[in-house]
Design a protein that fits this description.
The longest helix is centred in the last third of the chain and has 19 residues, at 53-71. It is built from three helices and two strands; from the N terminus they run αββαα. A two-stranded antiparallel ribbon has the order 1-2. The two termini are 25 Å apart. By secondary structure, it is of the alpha+beta class. It is 52% helix and 12% strand.
């Protein structure tokens, strides 16, 4: 992992319980994405530096999109 992505990875791992999933009858749940209110709490609790919040959030969204694609295959 590149050092400049470490914060995003830590926040991603910390958001393990913040996924929004929709039940689908007779199938696995459909992964919608992250609960951004919960993401904000995780970022605050992990003390992401204020000047890095936007960059970390953008990186987290890349991880989120890739997770949704993989989980919903």
């Amino acid at each position: 992992m590149w050092p400049e992505h470490a914060w995003a990875w830590e926040v991603y791992l910390g958001c393990a319980t913040q996924w929004i999933k929709t039940p689908v009858m007779g199938s696995l749940p459909w992964w919608e994405g992250l609960n951004y209110t919960g993401v904000e709490v995780v970022m605050r609790k992990y003390q992401v530096p204020e000047d890095m919040e936007s960059e970390v959030f953008a990186q987290l969204q890349v991880l989120e999109v890739e997770t949704v694609v993989l989980r919903n295959q």
